[in-house]
Amino acid sequence: MVGSGILATWGVVTMRRAGTNVRPDQPALVIVVDGPFRFSRNPLYLALTGFYLGVSMLINTVWPPFLLPVLLAFLHWGVIRREEHYLEAKFGSTYLNYKARVRRWL
After folding, report:
1. What does the pLDDT read at residue 60?
2. From CA 43, how far away is CA 58, in angstroms rounded?
3. Measured on CA atoms in the order 55, 78, 6, 98, is the torsion positive or negative?
4. Residue 62 has what pLDDT?
5. Half-sphere exposure (CA, 13 Å, Cβ side) for 75?
6. Most buried of 21, 39, 82, 98 (most Cβ within 10 A)?
7. Cα 87 → chain centroid
8. Under 8 Å CB-to-CB from 8, ≥6 apart: which residues?
């Protein structure tokens, strides 16, 4: 959970320094390729997933890990794919080149 918090903070700070919005419901102003975005196109979602797993272990119940695939499917199809289509339409080859260089998760 601590590692996820550090990753999320690093991602947010990097986005703010680049001058773009952090919230996914606000428009992207630039493609961020520094900081954790050098290794993952979605470090904030990666941090969220790690945090979810950490909380799952802390509450010590069986069902949260079984829900994880459902949550990841929703995140992939309901959020990430939409964001990628938006970024491709807005930034064109700049985003496509970034997408070719950097993996979605790790």
Report:
1. 84
2. 22
3. positive
4. 84
5. 16
6. 98
7. 14
8. 43, 44, 47, 48, 51
Mean per-residue pLDDT pooled into runs of 10, the chain (106 residues): 97 98 95 98 97 92 90 96 97 98 95
Contact 67, 49 (CB under 8 A): no
84: helix, coil or strand? helix
* Domain boundaries, given as residue ranges, for the chain: 2-101
Amino acid at 14: T
Distances (CA, A) of 84 to 6, 33, 55, 88, 101: 24, 15, 28, 6, 14
Q: Cα(48)–Cα(46) distance, rounded to whole angstroms?
A: 5
